[in-house]
## 1
Amino acid sequence: MNFIENETRDKLRGGYYTDPAIAAYLVRWVLEVRPRAVLEPSCGDGAFFRALKQTPEPTGLERLVACELDGEEAAKACQEAQALPGVRAEVHHADFLDWALGRMHEPPEFDAVVGNPPFIRYQYLSDTAQGLAARVITHFGLRFTRHTNAWVPFVIAALSRLKPGGRLAMVVPAELLHVLHADSARRYLLRTCSRILVLDPEELWFENTQQGVVLLMAEKRRADAPEGTLGAVAITRIRGRECLASTPARHVEGAEYVPGEELPGKWMLALLTARERAILGGLRGHEAVRPFSRIARVAVGIVTGANKFFLVPDSVVEEYGLGAYAWPMFGRSAHVEGIIYDARAHAENKRQGLPTNFLWFKDAPRDALPERVRAYIERGEAMRLHERFKCRIREPWYTVPSVFTAPVGMLKRCHDYPRLIHNAHGAYTTDTAYRIFPREPSAPRLVHAFVNSLTALCAELEGRHYGGGVLELVPSEINRLLVPLPPEGGEDLGDLDALCRANLPAEEVLAQRDSVLLGGIGLSPGEWGELQRAWGRLRHRRQRTGGGDEAEPGEE
């Protein structure tokens, strides 16, 4: 975890400023409707004002209202705004959310919204900022979570101030499409807008950060639109910034839009072609395909609060005489190359000096522990581990709760595709992995069925990823994964274990598995090929490796 004292001032205030080409492109699009009043909710030093100033033809703009929390930046923006000819400009040195909340019961007054809202993670938001975010989101009947990033309520509040038929053009994190805390923004956009275009750059557009961004371009529903209908979403992949010199209307009108009714949660489905969505939709009702929640139960791993203290190699066990308290464990991809964790795999990890021991002191009082064991606990206290939240709520702090094994494990994060691990050794897992309990199939059959393009594609659609491109799944997302269960085979895991250990390209592994699993439930090679190409495209998008480009909808 990154701590607040280690972060830069710009990161803490969400100050990633907008490239002039991006600002100019978004400004050109909103000016197409000749807005009389424009809102910029987080103007920084005035990047969008400079873009407005450089517009060659008359815009019809009469009024510009902006907010900026940083006083120095607000002063710079004010100078830029005052240089706009014929425009009545107001730059408020204020928190936009506070400003907007004071106007929530007034009619919308803006024809367009432009901006680059602050990207501030929830850990770095003050209690006041959290409170404002909660008030904005709940005002519209949306669900607030304390994991919400600052940009989410900014988008919602700005959109609420937009008149029917108006346009919103913003730079927002790419996590708009898939993280749970952005669900309120996605729902509000679908509820209030007719069309939503997301331009999805292949590259990272902000220097010195791994924050991926997208360009959000939304048209608010007109006043005469039918009540209760949802908007439509299109996602267009773009390469390089050269496309920003083109006419925005070309992107907006040429995109393939997916009805909001087909996007009940995340928007990742809009990255698929109509054919891919049709195949996937058909499999949801297939008699041999199950959602994961029907065939297994997911539990989080053991929460130690200090993994480096509780997970140790043999050398530490020997040094402190911890043998009576050391139990086998795995929890990282380095521990398991294949899909079986057995005595042989455990012995190899020990030979390599990996932390293969989980220290479980149970409820032993300190004075009953051997001297060297007490010395190890005191070593942890010297590092102030007992003051960490997850440790200090326990008594004694070194006694870890909820210790039990599961027949199957699953690492929380993966690079190419997720896999289940048959825990033949009965090892423990920490919270870097999940504990899986099969319901319907046996543990070996469940592990055998999990590696295929259908399940891998579902993981891309349901999971989340951040700057480094690693895929992460939480239990609710795992529960929605689709798993094919052919009627025959799946108990012998030796071949699959060898295949996963063979260091083959992920595409080749899945191709071999698809012929067995997806072919085994009646899919044609053409159908499972479509699923594999869709998975490959989304994986390359996540990893930003530039491959897997076949049949991508709306690609530039």
## 2
Amino acid sequence: MLRSLHVPGTPLVLPNVWDVASAKAVVATGFPVVATTSGGVAASLGYEDHEEAPAAEMLAAAARISRSVDVPVTVDAEAGYAMEPADLVAALKRVGAAGCNLEDTSHAAGTLRDPLEQAAWLRSLREAASDQDYGLVVNARIDVFLAGDGDGAQGELVTEALRRAHAYFEAGADCVYPIALRETTALAAFVSEAGGPVNVLAIAGAPSLAELAELGVARVSYGSRLHRQAMEEFESSLRRL
């Protein structure tokens, strides 16, 4: 079901969750899929984002969320927690994940992974899922725009992002996620040339949902935005006591 919801021009909207309560709220308001945010989950567990939280705790949180709802759950698995592909696939299957996000940043090194190495890793992950008879939906995150240095390099960044997108789709990814790409012309070029479904992060400066649909985007994520807003509202309420 999750794979079939990735329709270019009719984007799957994912208000990312961080715990069981937020997951239940997403389902109660009619969204067909629950997606976790590593930043929000890590914060709720007392850690920073970017694999600072132990994999076991992050996966346990994902399992609680998956058990609490009756819709597909896609898990932000960060960069895979340095797990072997078969082990990561088995762990995601155990927690009940229908899909996952996997980013191409090496948090240990603090750099982007080589795209061919990342593609080989994704291919091994896809093969492991097939071996385990598991239809895992893989959203391959492309992090080149997180490290970008402004509009002057935008064209080069789009070219590099497309190179990675093509490699990741060839390796078996179901969707690619050029996180932080927000400029309309660059987004349009990326979507038209990526070669498969594209996920966009809903952030300040990005096109509206209607505009993203017109561009042919297939999936829209909110990342940790709603978690931050919820915490800000909670603090604001506390100050009014």
## 3
Amino acid sequence: MRMSAEERRESVVRAAMVEFARGGYRGTSTEAIARRVGVSQPYLFRLFPNKQAIFEAAAEHCMEETWRVFDRASEGLTGDAACDAMGEAYLNLVEDREQVMMQMQIYVSVFAAESAGDGDIGETARAGWSRLFERIEERIGDRTLATEFMAHGMLINTLVALGFPFEHGLWSAFVELGEKQRQARAGEG
């Protein structure tokens, strides 16, 4: 059975996520993406106008997948309960190193592109990140708590990207910080 163009696009985006996670925007060739999908390079460009469009679609997919994980985990919850459920779900999600590395590559690629005078990738990435934050804020119901949640997520990304094993003391310090913040909020209420 042949795939529809939309199904093929989705397979390109998933493959691109893997390749960009490993090589970044500049270090990933469209040839590698085409090879991973099992299509020709010219066919890729029938689905997407250029490499940047493929990267932007992969970045959007990465952010949307992160939200889907949060949404499923925290459905019907708010406040600390939503935050805890999404945090637990994120710890499970980051076991997929390609998901974390794609997030990190998005940030690095935006920085590199904008340093070279190209702001297009940054606009797309910022829109996706802002949309993710807004959804998290809406779910939690508190802007400060949503900001703390995102800050913890970035720390998790850094620990994972740097290869710290979960047994390392930095992880336990991270867990202790979260517990202290929860206790402080409980004392305020």
